[in-house]
């Protein structure tokens, strides 16, 4: 079996499940995976750091030697965490090589692209110092929840271009939607439902806010479209309130997921909601949309290696860099259709094609 396939098998066998939500295992966090990558990069001659971003959850950052100072910096950046293994129909950490595929959590998203990047760096370790760019590698923690790793690195280091590893079928994702989640909460006073006027119903103001939010969203943004990404969307995902039908509810919570387009003003939208519904507390979280000019010189080199341009409805670690003015894209082997699935896998032929692509791209920088 090829070296890149064996490397991916080793990576899949290291659990690095994001602990947010229900991970489906007690083997969570990125530390063990980051340490494996750190040893791999050190053996290639990189200067390696393991900055702890959250307790026990580091990024791993490698800076390769260069034959002269002052070169522009190019970062290769897959993420080290995976989604939950709850409900998987295969052994999540087997890394089994069978039927021309490698199976297990992260094999597609995104340890497959990571393995191809690392193997390309290994195969070209003698060439890397002579390239036109200073090469960096980062295994970013927490992409699947909060993007803490990419946000931290984007705010602490400067780069001239960032190539994020994601399963894009070797297409260049230079634009993608963002996500803004709006969380609504209202507090009430519980009393017997036969005398509701003596209490305060927490569900009612949240319902009023949701009805208005939906109508106002469509009024403001219903005609907003992007030539590649299409329309912005809104989904009311959860609503929870009350305990029994004969008790006036003392609390209510709801959550809304808006998929945003580059340039869309969600901050102003949320500010107006807060002013209109003072009984409701609004908090937000999310990820920025991505837009990188397709005429960028590095993108042209990627296209010269055979990659086409595309957009995506999902978001990734490219956006925190792009927000700070750094050109960033996502590109890697494998299909997003296999990401997060109950029997996640990547075709070995796709993995090897990714290795070839990354090597060809790096050689373009000679």
Task: Report on this structure.
Helix 1 packs across helix 3 and helix 3 (111-123) packs across helix 9 (348-364). The model has no long low-confidence stretch (mean pLDDT 97). The protein is of the alpha+beta class and 366 residues long. The chain has helices at 3-12, 31-43, 111-123, 148-156, 203-221, 266-276, 297-304, 318-323, 348-364, and strands at residues 47-49, 52-54, 57-58, 60-63, 73-78, 97-98, 101-103, 134-139, 161-165, 172-176, 178-187, 225-226, 230-231, 233-241, 251-260, 281-287, 290-291, 309-312, 328-330, 345-347. A hairpin with a 3-residue loop joins strand 12 (225-226) and strand 13 (230-231). A six-stranded mixed β-sheet has the order 1-4-8-5-9-19. It is built from nine helices and 20 strands. The protein starts with a helix and ends with a helix. It has two domains: 3-176 and 289-364, Aminopeptidase, CATH 3.40.630.10; 178-287, Alpha-Beta Plaits (2-Layer Sandwich). This is Acetylornithine deacetylase. Its cofactor is Zn(2+).
Overview features:
single chain, 366 residues, alpha+beta, Aminopeptidase, Alpha-Beta Plaits, four-stranded antiparallel β-sheet, 9 helices, 20 strands, 25% strand
CATH topology of the largest domain, what is it called?
Aminopeptidase
Looking across the biggest beta sheet, what order are the strands in?
A: 1-4-8-5-9-19
The percentage helix is 25-40%
CATH superfamily of the largest domain: Zn peptidases
**Given the C-alpha coordinates, what overall shape results?**
globular
Q: Which second-level CATH architecture of the largest domain applies? A: 3-Layer(aba) Sandwich
Largest sheet: 6 strands, mixed
C-alpha termini separation: 29 Å
Number of helices: 9
Radius of gyration, in angstroms, nearest whole number: 23 Å
Number of strands: 20
Flag low-confidence runs.
Answer: none
* Number of structurally distinct domains: 2
């Amino acid at each position: 079996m090829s070296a890149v396939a064996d490397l991916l098998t080793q990576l899949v066998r290291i659990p690095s499940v994001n602990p947010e939500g229900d991970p489906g295992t007690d083997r969570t966090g990125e530390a063990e995976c980051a340490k494996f990558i750190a040893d791999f990069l050190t053996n290639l001659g990189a200067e390696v750091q393991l900055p702890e971003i959250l307790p026990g959850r580091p990024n791993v950052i490698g800076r390769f030697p260069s034959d002269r100072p002052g070169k522009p910096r190019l970062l290769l950046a897959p993420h080290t965490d995976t989604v939950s293994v709850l409900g998987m129909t295969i052994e999540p950490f087997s890394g089994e090589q069978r039927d021309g595929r490698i199976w297990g959590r992260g094999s597609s998203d995104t340890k497959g692209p990571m393995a191809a990047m690392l193997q390309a760096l290994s195969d070209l370790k003698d060439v890397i110092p002579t390239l036109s760019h200073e090469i960096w590698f980062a295994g970013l923690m927490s992409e699947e929840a909060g993007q803490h790793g990419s946000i931290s690195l984007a705010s602490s280091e400067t780069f001239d271009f960032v190539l994020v590893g994601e399963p894009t079928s070797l297409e260049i994702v230079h634009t993608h939607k963002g996500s803004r989640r709006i969380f609504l909460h209202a507090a009430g006073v519980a009393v017997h439902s036969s005398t509701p006027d003596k209490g305060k119903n927490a569900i009612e103001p949240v319902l009023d806010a949701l009805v208005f939010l939906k109508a106002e969203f469509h009024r403001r943004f219903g005609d907003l479209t992007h030539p590649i990404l299409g329309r912005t969307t809104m989904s009311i995902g959860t609503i929870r309130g009350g305990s029994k039908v004969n008790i006036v509810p003392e609390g209510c919570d709801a959550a809304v997921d808006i998929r945003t387009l580059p340039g869309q003003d969600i901050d102003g939208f949320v500010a107006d909601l807060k002013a209109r519904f003072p009984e409701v507390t609004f908090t937000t979280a999310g990820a920025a949309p991505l837009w990188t000019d397709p005429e960028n010189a590095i993108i042209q080199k990627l296209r010269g290696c055979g990659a086409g341009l595309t957009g995506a409805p999902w978001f990734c670690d490219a956006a925190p860099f792009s927000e700070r003015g750094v050109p960033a894209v996502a590109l890697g082997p494998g299909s997003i259709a296999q990401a997060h699935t109950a029997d996640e896998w990547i075709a070995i032929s796709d993995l090897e094609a990714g290795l070839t692509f990354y090597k060809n791209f790096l050689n373009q920088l000679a």
